[in-house]
Amino acid sequence: MTTNGAPSAGPTFYDVQEVAAMLKMSRMTVYRAISTGELRAVRVRGRWLVPAQVIETLVESAVAGATADLRGGA
């Protein structure tokens, strides 16, 4: 769902394999990030799912940090 209540075009959750592919890391690294709390996820019937919003926020944070670095600020 978007903030106005309309359904979004993308998925709501990603599985570990999809997250690993998006972030170009191994599945084990994603599992470790989930277990340490670095990456929020929910467990449904034994399967870890990462909310799409978590990935979107991660990307936005990285872009904001990179932009600040380019400007010479934090």
TrEMBL record:
What is the protein name stated in its UniProt record? Helix-turn-helix domain-containing protein
Give the source's domain of life in one word.
Bacteria
Q: Please report the stretch or stretches of sequence annotated as the Helix-turn-helix domain.
A: 13-61
